[in-house]
User: Fold this.
Amino acid sequence: MRTWAADAIHKIEADFNRSADTHLIPLPLPGFPGIDVYLKDESSHPTGSLKHRLARSLFLYSLANGWLRHDSTVIEASSGSTAVSEAYFARLLGMPFIAVMPAATSPEKIAAIEFQGGRCHLVDDPMQIYVESARLARETGGHFMDQFTFAERATDWRANNNIAESIFKQMAEEPQPIPEWLVCGAGTGGTSATLGRYVRYRRHRTRVLCADPQNSVFFDYFSGSLQSRPDASLTLPGGSRIEGIGRPRVEASFIPGCVDAMTKVPDALSLAAMRYISRRLDRRVGGSTGTNFIGVLTLAQRMRAAGESGSIVTILCDSGDRYSHSYYNPQWYETCRIAVGEADAALQAALSGTTLDTVDFVAR
Assistant:
């Protein structure tokens, strides 16, 4: 067992050694002089998203804890991208993989999981993915990875080239090398925990803003924590329309103390920002990148109003090619009754100076 685990860890580390770091892309905002914005492009990982880092950490954590055997079936509750990445690592180790997913998950993500050798188990109620994953693990004698519990502790937040360490290394030669803000969304909460812990550990002045989509409980949970009244029982029906971030319940890996501020972003604005970033980069990005950018824009407006300068770094989470059936399909917007023209106009006005009144903001 120890020999197999050592060999498995060696395969994962060798795979990492073959990979380059992801790019940091400057994104000038002409209406905000003195404020430098950067996108950390996580879409260039082998499995195409930020979740590649998480999947690698979860496998190493499970192997180091002795939770995986050579004959284990790996099971994960996932809305898509984590499952794609975990399927990649399961195939690397020669292990079966089952993704338990909401039935509404994009067909592109389902195809990506199957391409990596995984199998998709779809459930109608997004709240049942946890129970169903645990049941499948019992029935197969496998291991439920449980990203929503273990994401914040599986990642080595002090070093090991986590996303925070990578950002600060890449910012070292920039005009304003220590970011005033790091902006991310929350799905598991693992990324916000890693960023928040790292900047405290390294004693940086940098603060962390978490951008939450419309149908998610994290913003309300964080707001309650500021009043010393956090309510971990918060739930919402259904799931977020911004795939990969937002949750209908409070997840164990979301640590409000690692976050300095949060925004609540309407879906229409998230997707308008997604289209704006796609035009600026001349390639499609996903909806969560749009949510993050609204967080950036909210901060940039506040900094400009206060006469402040500085840099802001956010995350380009994944490619928009996984959302051809939805975010890049006009019919989908009609079905969801999302006013594209109004949202695009509101975003352009915000880039020109108008305050984003529809975005809630709360900070420590």
